[in-house]
Amino acid sequence: MESSNKVKYRGGKSTAKGIGIATGRTNNIPRLAITTPGEVVEQELKHVKLHSSKHKDGKPLDQVLANSTNLKKPNFCSVKTPWRRRLQTLAVAWHVGSFVYILAFAILALANPIMWVIMIPYMVYYAIDRSPANGNVTKRYSPWVRSLGFWRYYCDYYPITLHKTADLPPTYTAKTPLSVSPKSPYRISFKVRIWPFKYSLKFNILKRTNTSPELEMEATGPRYIFGYHPHGVGALGAFGAFATEGANFSQMYPGIRMCLMTLINQFQIPFYRDYLLALGITAVSKKNALRVLQCDHSICIVVGGAQEALMSKIGSADLVLKKRKGFIKLALETGNVSLVPCFAFGETDCYNILQTDEKSYLRRLQLWVKRSYGFTIPFFFARGLFNYDFGLIPFRRPINVVTGAPIHVKEKHENPTVEEIDHYHKLYIEELERIFFSNRKKFGYENQELKYVE
Question: Where are the transmembrane segments (predicted)?
Fold first, then answer.
């Protein structure tokens, strides 16, 4: 009697289904040939290219590793490094990892019962506050935080320099002086009475450097939508030039209040969201952008987004722009808005990139993260805090942000037509190309070509 547990094979192939399993016969005994982890890694290295200053066209990672048999000693920073450069590195290290530091602080505060007296009210506020998505960033916007001297160190690290090719009419202009006497020489000044006596103590905090008469401002000019290109790994130049005063934005464009827009995911971290809002950074959504513009603030959008970030590599200018027309439609639906294209020379040179192809498992992981969470980043590395060989701190590469001439949309269009959107989109691309080709030689990118990948 034959056993009912007998397994049948046809043509030497198992009827069982699996991934990465092949079968064969040795002396009528089936054999499973399972791909080893080492073979998976070996195949993966063939589908990953390293883009660096030495390999701008990209070189398979397995070849790079094969040629680096003689390992060099780690290249550490000199102990004689000037303190100013150390502070610059510290400022960049803070920006790159700030969300990690603040998230760790929030978790520790929640785990410590002593901090619950602060954390419980804050978490209630965190649950009900919608400032990142309803335009209330204009109320949380802090010129003082944006003007901290700390951001000067951040911009001087690369350095980040803002260049304008045309003047922009201010959105806000002075109305009338509120008083002829100078304002208080202190930012905070108050008295505390010593009860039950008639005496009081006066406290003066944060002395002002400018005591000119206070002026009331009114919105008289257009709002602006700045389009930033390319995205690079983390839009480092956009943060320095438009989210801080480290590159002297308000001096170059007085009367314009700027809000940089980023993904909503970043506002899900306690305390980090408030840090971003104080810098004028808010969520990139149509509803939120419209409300910010209605409050007479200007916005900066990194148009290429996560898709363009995946294509970033040293020396490239690959843009995702041809099909990105939402910001054009937003300008038409708002009215009295000017479109200002910006190109950042050097944005893509701050990190070495590990670029994956379609056959790579890492590529599939990146696309899955993008589909699931709405964002993704390339695999990258640069230098460390105390070494120059490996880490997540960007290289010291100049980033020159060039802003173009404004493309003014005067009338408000409730339902803009496709022809109207295409018209302004064409004007925008023409101005972007003008500032790119007229400035690339000036900043050492005469061989760089502008390429629209989508």
Answer: 92-125
- For residue 230, whether the previous peptide bond is cis, meaning omega lies within 30 degrees of 0, is yes
Q: Which two tokens stand for residue 447?
A: 């061989």
What is the average pLDDT across 247-264? 94
Place of tokens 């790079």: 64
What is this structure's pTM? 0.81
pLDDT at residue 10 tops 70: no
Give CA angle at 124 (266, 268), nearest 5°: 10
Closest by CA position to 317, among listed 354, 342, 350, 344: 344
The CB density around residue 169, as the number of other CB atoms within 10 Å, is 15
Q: Tell me the helices (H) and strands (E) count for the chain, helix number first.
A: 15, 20
Q: What's at 202, amino acid-wise?
A: K
Let me know: does 14 contact 30? Beta carbons within 8 Å: yes
Q: Are 294 and 334 in contact (CB under 8 A)?
A: yes
- The residue-averaged pLDDT of 294-313 equals 90
Q: What pLDDT sits at residue 134?
A: 92
Least confident range of 20-29, 51-60, 137-146, 340-349: 20-29
CA 409, CA 243: separation in Å to the nearest integer?
24
Which residues are bridge partners to 166 per DSSP?
A: none
Residues 6+ apart with CB under 8 A from 148: 244
Show the tokens assigned to 120: 């419980």
Q: Where are the beta strands (DSSP E) in 304-364?
A: 318-319, 337-345, 352-356
Tell which wins on pLDDT, 122 or 56. Answer: 122
- The pLDDT of residue 33 is 46
Q: How far is CA 67 from CA 63, 193, 391, in A?
A: 6, 76, 21
Domain ranges of the chain: 83-174+218-452, 185-215
Who contacts 341 (Cβ-Cβ below 8 Å, separation ≥6)?
226, 227, 229, 403, 404, 428, 431, 432, 435
